[in-house]
Write a structure and sequence with these properties.
The structure holds three protein chains of three kinds.
Chain A: H1 11-20, H2 25-37, E1 48-49, E2 52-53, H3 62-65, E3 73-77, E4 84-87, H4 88-102, H5 113-121, E5 126-130, E6 139-145, E7 149-158, E8 163-172, E9 180-190, E10 195-203, E11 208-218, E12 223-230, E13 235-244, E14 250-259, E15 264-273, E16 279-288, E17 293-302, E18 309-319, E19 325-334, E20 339-349, H6 352-360, H7 365-381, H8 387-401
Parallel strand pairs in A: 5-7, 6-8, 7-9, 8-10, 9-11, 10-12, 11-13, 12-14, 13-15, 14-16, 15-17, 16-18, 17-19, 18-20
Antiparallel strand pairs in A: 1-2, 3-6, 4-5
Helix pairs in contact in A: 1-2, 2-5, 6-7
Chain B: H1 3-11, H2 34-43, H3 48-63, H4 81-88, H5 106-115, H6 119-125, H7 132-146, E1 151-154, H8 155-161, H9 163-169, H10 181-189, E2 194-198, E3 208-209, H11 210-217, E4 224-229, E5 234-239, E6 251-252, E7 255-260, E8 265-272, E9 279-281, E10 283-288, E11 293-300, E12 305-308, E13 311-314, E14 320-329, E15 334-343, E16 349-358, E17 363-372, E18 379-389, E19 395-404, E20 409-419, H12 422-430, H13 435-451, H14 456-470
Parallel strand pairs in B: 2-4, 3-5, 4-7, 5-8, 6-9, 7-10, 8-11, 9-12, 10-13, 11-14, 12-15, 13-15, 14-16, 15-17, 16-18, 17-19, 18-20
Antiparallel strand pairs in B: 1-2
Chain C: E1 3-13, E2 20-30, E3 34-38, H1 45-53, E4 58-68, E5 87-89, H2 95-101, E6 103-106, H3 118-137, H4 140-150, H5 170-183, H6 201-215, E7 219-223, H7 231-248, E8 251-256, E9 269-274, E10 277-282, H8 284-293, H9 295-305
Parallel strand pairs in C: 3-8, 3-9, 6-7, 7-8
Antiparallel strand pairs in C: 1-2, 1-4, 4-5, 9-10
Helix pairs in contact in C: 2-3, 6-7
The chains are: A alpha/beta, B alpha/beta, C alpha/beta.
């Protein structure tokens, strides 16, 4: 079911965005092709059970959400690192060939309606390049969204035996009247034996609709570890995916979300095992308060040639309110028998016995509950190797609980 | 109930409706016309209300698209609905069976032999000829039950003799034709099947077996089973048997409706071993009242493609459900099966255990839905799916869906996929078992935790079928 | 009277450029004898055991493993037995065929198999052994006749299934099992448990000996059957091994690190392996010498002599 192309967007709009940034011809063409494809593309797949569609993307009104020529952001990028870290459009001048070679190689701009819209209109984003053998310092990217709509495009390229940790924080800056739309596409091309950790913490205001699609491809022995923390936005659709293309490659996808009021999180973690001896570990924990709703899909897809695969998935949701709703679908798709795979999912509430025990030790019920919620996130926090990022997430969880 | 009411009732079941886009490809089913339906109904001398229901279902069938957009669903493009239509006309008597024993495919004759089924039984099971010995057994059972007020009869006969109760329950509250395209098709052309009524506080000790009934009536392709277990009653119904059902048709679309009253307990067991050219698309559903208990036990071994998700609606407080599912897919088979449970009341409980085995290029999929409604507090559900795979030509999928609208719940889902370890096989071989026996033993061990919970007569049949399926197919 | 004869056995790990482990093993074990095979870690003891049983992880590159039988060993076979059927080249046979001829391997790390009860497993193994033996000693014409026999008639109702064709009846099996378990001081509840699943290390080893007792092999190769056992269990296991020899005339090839078990199971012959070869053989005294002087002593002696 294709969506109407907003009247506010035309070839001229796209050309103007490209022209203002003095972009090379190939990129303009890619943008225009994406724009043209819009009318034939569908929204991303959403889980549907009898009588119940888990996320309603159809009612997003792009006509009013998208204001392509007034995109504004304030983004700080760390500079003390051996890696190349540049705003995407600035990077084109010096690294044009490298970007051209990798852009769209991991994530097809015409994958769906939302990716095409994003590629056609993006004005911000980051390019990270880690040359061969470089063990780069942590890279931080702190972005503020200052407009009705913002489209961001990030590309990470790591060469052989390099390593880097990238931490991205996204918040709302200037107040803008009404509803907003934030789109965040991230591609990671991890070279042989390289190691990438990509962490993201999204805390946009609750008038914002967020779409994030982050996908990495691993070469031989490469590792991509994702951490995806979602606390903000009214509706978040987040897809974190790794294509384990190289023998012996690995990926971990760690997710945490905390919803309250009428927030809706559609969180997805997917991994494709396409080569031999690959390993994946998907760990997601979420808490829901008030009328918040979460939708989770985890996919472990093991291809026919993926011999000796190990693949694990765990998802746990904690419900703090009776009006919350948690939907989950952890999927195994296995085409090779030389596989050890498992998944588990649970939904429950704060354990009454635990609460009682704490209360009997004179802790008031609210504090006790908060302690238990913070404790619930510990297994996920433990996976976060970078202190600063873990502390940020802990602080946001703490804030939400007060 | 007037047919107006009936229409309303079936339409209000929107919760189960598949809201799918209209596809035009299946709009023009030649042959499946109002005329055909009228002929069926007339031939059975049905009351007017049943004809109306059939016609209404026909309309719904025509309006609904084929399900095609479920992730990874079996390919149904070869289902030849047009081909089926001439067969369902009542003037054709060969419904379902082969004309002669010798006409059965060799593979099936062979299976009958290996199962040790006597010659006379074989003919009956394959739908050929009449079976007098079983008729007597059946008659005896009937008398014993009748004294207690139990009714066990052919569905067509029930429409005539127990009209009021059938009218109230038949494809109204449980499985309305609007549920899905094949339920609608079933509603239009259903024929045969069983009607079981167990009065209050009566326990039927002996399992009621469609096995015996089949001998006298022949099992249709579109049989309807309606089971009503009144308050405090208890019964076990076994459907099917271990022999493969060979059919000229390529579509089996049965309907099963079970009403489990307060404190009642119904166990429904099936071993499905349709011939490997059959599309097996069934709709089975139970509604369970307060403190009632429903148990579904399904073994799916046969068919080319199966889409079967027995569902339970836990309607009354404290109602419970238990699903046990065993699926095995070999060459050319796509067994897509699982369970659906709706927790619509507080303190309801469900457990789902699924074991699947994929080999020789077959595909198994566990597809299941657990829905806990807002207000169904203190409910719990536990789902456990284990799959075993033999080779990298086969596919093993697991697709559970959980919809939890209530916080005071305990929800757990677990799944594993494993392979048959070379070390395990060597160990067994070193004790003298050959490769096939070793693998078979591991498969039996794999399903053992489930089979030990099964009624004995069912477990025996199931085990032997598994052995047959494993035999010689392993390299 | 059976004899297991290993001549100049060379084997390596069955993969490209797999490590060479056995470099010319010579060893002969006869019925009724107890042999101890000792040696430091990595000398090739366990590999020898696995190769005898036909483990697919190893490839034999040279040498032979023969099993010689005599009339008493094939007394259970009804067929006329050709002269050629008294000697078997084990390397040509599948693991289960070797087992049927009377080779038993007691595993260092027995597999754990969920869902298969001990009773069920052992009965099937015993029946499989009978069946396989018939097949091994059968000539081909007779085989064709036998196939026809199998198709005859039904002797039970479809709901009950055919009566088991196994050679050993349930009662007979149970009695045999009870006797053997008592001998090994094993709790009968083991029989309802799944094969090795959740067994302690010692229970697994006891179970290996029990299986040997049930299957009555001509030659039992016991790979570190004594490691991880406390003294009580060691005595039970030793009793079982002695009974194998005394009551069934089984030849035992016992692989061990420790002198300890040899106090309870006195070996007729002791062999020492180093670097993939049997470098020294002797009687029980050799084991004691080894205990006192260690493997370096053997190494020195062997390499000095060379």
């Amino acid at each position: 079911m294709s969506v109407q192309v907003p009247a506010s967007i035309s070839a001229e709009t796209v050309e103007r965005i490209a022209e203002e940034r003095d972009e090379p011809e190939w990129l303009l063409e890619t943008r225009l092709a994406a724009l043209e494809a819009l009318e034939d593309l569908d929204l991303p797949d959403v889980i549907q059970t009898p009588g119940n569609r888990w996320t309603d993307l159809e009612s997003l009104d792009f006509e009013s959400l998208v204001d392509p020529l007034n995109q504004a952001d304030a983004t700080e990028r760390s500079e003390d690192t051996d890696a190349v870290v540049l705003p995407f459009t600035e990077a084109l001048e010096e690294y044009g060939d490298l970007i051209e070679a990798n852009f769209g190689s991991v994530l097809d701009p015409q994958e769906n309606y939302l990716t095409a819209l994003s590629v056609a209109l993006f004005t911000t984003g980051t390019f990270v390049y880690v040359p061969e053998g470089v063990d780069a310092e942590d890279v931080t990217v702190r972005a503020e969204m200052n407009s009705r709509s913002l489209f961001s495009q990030t590309l990470v390229v790591t060469e052989e035996s390099s390593s880097v940790t990238i931490l991205e924080g996204i918040e709302t800056g200037d107040d803008v009247e009404g509803e907003r739309y934030f789109s965040n596409l991230v591609e990671v091309a991890a070279g042989e034996n390289s190691h990438v950790q990509f962490g993201s913490l999204q805390n946009l205001d609750e008038e914002t609709y967020t779409y994030a699609l982050k996908r990495g491809v691993t070469d031989t022995y490469a590792t991509i570890n994702w951490i995806e923390g979602n606390l903000g936005s009214r509706l978040t659709r987040s897809d974190i995916e790794t294509d384990l293309d190289g023998d012996g490659s690995e990926s971990q996808i760690v997710g945490a979300f905390f919803g309250h009021e009428d927030q809706h999180f559609d969180i997805n973690a997917r991994v494709w095992h396409r080569a031999e001896n690959t390993t994946a570990d998907l760990v997601t924990r979420g808490v829901l308060d008030d009328e918040a709703r979460s939708v989770y899909e985890g996919v472990q897809d093991v291809g026919q040639d993926a011999w000796n695969t190990s693949s694990y998935q765990r998802e746990n949701t904690l419900m703090l309110s009776d009006d919350a709703e948690a939907d989950a679908s952890p999927k195994l798709i296995i085409h090779n028998h030389d596989t050890e795979a498992s998944h588990s999912a649970t939904v429950g509430q704060v354990d009454a016995e635990d609460l009682f025990y704490m209360e009997s030790r004179t802790i008031d019920p609210i504090t006790a509950r908060n302690m238990l919620v913070e404790g619930f996130f510990v297994p996920v926090l433990e996976e976060i190797a970078v202190d600063e990022f873990r502390e940020d997430l802990e602080a946001l969880v703490g804030e939400r609980l007060r | 109930m007037s047919s107006e009411d009936h229409i309303k009732e079936t339409d209000t079941e929107a919760r189960f409706e598949f809201k799918k886009e209209q596809k035009s490809a299946f709009q023009t089913e030649k042959g499946l016309t109002e005329e055909t339906i009228r002929l069926i109904s007339e031939d059975k001398d049905e009351p007017e209300w049943m004809l109306e229901r059939r016609l209404r279902a026909l309309e719904q069938y025509k309006a609904m698209p084929m399900p095609t957009d479920w992730p990874g669903q079996p390919d149904l493009s070869e289902v030849e609905i047009d081909e089926i239509v001439p067969y369902i006309r009542p003037d054709i008597e060969t419904r379902g069976g082969a004309e002669n024993w010798d006409d059965l495919p060799e593979e099936i004759q062979d299976t009958f032999d290996k199962l040790g089924i006597p010659e006379a039984e074989k003919k009956a099971l394959s739908g050929v000829g009449a079976q007098y010995e079983s008729e007597i057994v059946y008659q005896n059972m009937q008398e014993q039950w009748e004294e207690k007020g139990v009714i066990f009869c052919d569905m067509d006969k029930a429409v005539q003799e127990h009209e009021e109760i059938v009218k109230e329950h038949f494809m109204t509250k449980c499985v309305p034709p609007s549920d899905n395209k094949f339920a609608a098709l079933h509603g239009a052309i259903w024929s045969g099947g069983s009607f079981v009524y167990v009065p209050e506080d009566v326990t039927v000790n002996m399992p009621v077996q469609a096995y015996f009934r089949m001998n006298s009536e022949g099992m249709g392709q579109f049989e309807h089973t309606l089971i009503i277990a009144e308050e405090g009653s208890e019964m076990h119904y076994i459907e099917g048997c271990s022999a493969p059902k060979y059919s000229a048709f390529n579509l089996h679309s049965g309907g099963v409706e079970v009403f489990v009253g307060e404190d009642a307990h119904v166990q429904y067991s099936t071993v499905q071993n349709w011939s490997k050219n059959t599309y097996n698309l069934n709709t089975k559903r139970a509604i369970v009242e307060e403190n009632g208990r429903m148990e579904w036990i399904s073994g799916s071994m046969g068919s080319k493609a199966t889409m079967l998700y027995p569902s339970t609606i836990l309607k009354g407080r404290g109602a419970s459900d238990n699903h046990i599912t065993i699926a095995m897919a070999g060459e050319g088979q796509d067994i897509d099966t699982g369970a659906k449970v709706y927790h619509n009341a507080p303190e309801t409980k469900s457990t789902i255990e699924s074991k699947s085995i994929a080999k020789d290029g077959g595909r198994t999929n566990y597809r299941g839905l657990v829905h806990i409604a807002d207000g169904a507090e203190n409910s719990s559900t536990a789902v456990e799916c284990d799959a075993l795979m033999f080779d990298n030509e086969s596919t093993s999928d697991t697709m559970p869906y959980m919809e939890i609208n209530e916080s005071k719940v305990d929800v757990a889902h677990e799944a594993t996929v494993g392979k048959i370890g070379d070390e395990d096989i060597f160990y067994l071989q070193s004790r003298g078992l050959d490769d096939d026996d070793a693998k078979q033993m591991i498969v039996s061990g794999f399903i053992e935790p489930i089979t030990e919970e099964l009624p004995i007569e069912y477990a025996v049949e199931l085990n032997r079928l598994v052995e047959l399926e494993m035999e010689g197919s392993l390299g | 009277m059976a004899t297991l004869e290993i001549n100049d056995l060379h084997a390596r790990v069955a993969e490209e450029d797999g490590e060479r482990i056995l470099r010319g093993v010579d060893l002969t074990v006869e019925s009724g004898e107890i042999h101890a095979l000792m040696g430091p870690n990595g000398s090739g003891k366990s590999t020898t055991a696995k190769v005898i049983a036909g483990h697919p992880a190893y490839e034999v590159t040279d040498g032979e493993i023969l099993l010689h039988l005599d009339e008493a060993d094939v007394a259970d076979i009804d067929e006329d037995i050709d002269e050629a059927d008294y000697t078997w080249n084990l390397l040509e046979l599948e693991p289960n065929e070797r087992a049927a001829l009377g080779i038993f391997l007691g595993f260092q790390y027995p597999a754990e198999i969920e869902g298969v009860t001990m009773t069920n497993f052992l009965r099937q193994a015993i029946n499989a052994k009978h069946e396989e033996r018939e097949e091994l000693f059968e000539d081909e014409e007779a085989e064709a006749d036998a196939d026809e026999d199998e198709d005859a008639g039904y002797d039970s109702s479809p709901m009950e299934g055919p009566t088991d064709e196994g050679e050993i009846g349930v009662a007979e099996f149970q009695q045999l099992l009870s006797e053997k378990m008592e001998l090994l001081d094993m709790d009968e509840k083991f029989m309802q448990r799944y094969l090795n699943a959740g067994f302690s290390g010692g229970e697994k080893k006891q179970n290996e000996v029990l299986q040997a007792a049930m299957l009555e092999p001509a030659v039992a190769v016991l790979d570190e059957i004594d490691s991880g056992l406390d003294i009580d269990r060691l005595q039970d296991v030793a009793k079982g091994i002695n009974a194998l020899r005394d009551e069934q005339g089984t030849g035992v090839l016992q692989i061990t690190h420790y002198q300890r078990i040899l106090d309870y199971v006195e070996p007729d012959h002791v062999h020492i392996m180093l670097d993939g070869e049997v470098v020294k053989s002797g009687d029980a005294e050799l084991a004691e010498q080894l205990e006192d002087k260690g493997y370096d002593w053997v190494r020195e002696e062997v390499y000095e002599a060379a």
